[in-house]
Amino acid sequence: MKNIKKVLLAVLVLALAVSAFGCAKNEPAPPEKAPSETQETPSETPSENNELTKLTVAASPVPHAEILEQVKSDLADKGYELEVIEFADYVQPNLVVEAGDIDANFFQHKPYLDNFNEEKKTNIVAVADIHYEPLGIYPGKSKDLSDIPDGAAIAVPNDTTNEARALLLLEANGIIRIKEGAGLLATKKDIVENPHNVDIIELEAAQVPRVVTETDFVVLNGNYALEAGFNVETDALAKEEQDSEAATTYANILCVKKGNEETDKTKALIEALKSDKIKKFIADTYKGAAIAMD
To answer: What are the pLDDT digits (tens) for 190-211?
Structure first.
């Protein structure tokens, strides 16, 4: 009798074990995460996830922002959504790049950048020469540089490099003579000969076009001349020549914060702005008021 009980007990234990094993096999597997719940890997590129990476550039409205508008589709093909933020002055575009708020800027030339970095202790670097805008002398109340009224008022940009550039252009046209060696740091204090007793009025560059009707002549940067409706080829009484030192010295440059010179964003932007498409756009649109650099 005891043996029978032992056999029955063993059978019962075996049955329970088989039942438990069967239940374990039939339990549903934990659900897999839906694709939307998976974390993207840092190496994923815009083209892999079909999303465009934002690329921001600070620029003067004319011609810089207009040129940038022409490369939006080219950059989109490379995976970037270009946003152009326009500024009317020559200070904020560098400050926002220095702060890291904007990826790049396009509005200035190298002498201005070098002076800005020195004065503001910023770390902005040039990565490409894009185009050159000849500085010009434009008529105001007076129309003839060969017949300048005594005491004529001439408005010039007041930032260090552009003022020197304006004074050198006035000197090249026999209106004044600057102290030897003053060069790109010249101010009106460096004028050593002034046969017409002209009054040099120093204004922030963006303000110079606004005094055209109040002064005899104005010396304008290319972008502000365009904004004011002037064309250096047809309206300027005198201008910097294309083969002059100014053509290379004052080329308008694409700039980024130091350390970002070799990023994919920077490389894509340089390639787009140096393309034959943009060279043709500049030549066809500005007709000498802006000249694309090789």
So the answer is: 999 999 999 999 999 999 999 9
Q: DSSP assignment, residue 184?
A: G
- Integer Cα distance of 294 and 292 in angstroms: 7
Per-residue burial over 251-270, b = 16 or more CB atoms within 10 Å of its CB, e = otherwise: bbbbbbbeebeeeebbebbb
Residue 217 and residue 139 in contact, taking contact as beta carbons nearer than 8 Å? yes
Which residue intervals of 83-183 are DSSP H helices?
92-98, 110-120, 160-172
Q: What is the pLDDT of residues 118-153, one digit of tens each?
A: 999 999 999 999 999 999 999 999 999 999 999 999
Element (H, E) at 90: none
SS3 of 29-87: CCCCCCHHHCCCCCCCCHHHHCCCEEEEEEECHHHHHHHHHCCHHHHHHCCEEEEEEEC
Q: For residues 228 and 138, what is the distance between their CA atoms, to the nearest angstrom?
A: 11
User: What b-and-e string marks burial along 205-238, b requiring 16 or more CB atoms within 10 Å of the CB?
Assistant: bbebbeebeebbbbbbbbbbbbbbebebeebbeb
Residue 207 backbone dihedrals phi, psi, to 5 degrees: -90, -20
In this structure, the dihedral spanned by the alpha carbons of residues 3, 9, 14 and 15, taken in order and rounded to 10 degrees, is 130
3-class state of residue 213 by DSSP: coil
pLDDT value for 46: 55
Rounded Cα distance between 94 and 60, Å, is 12
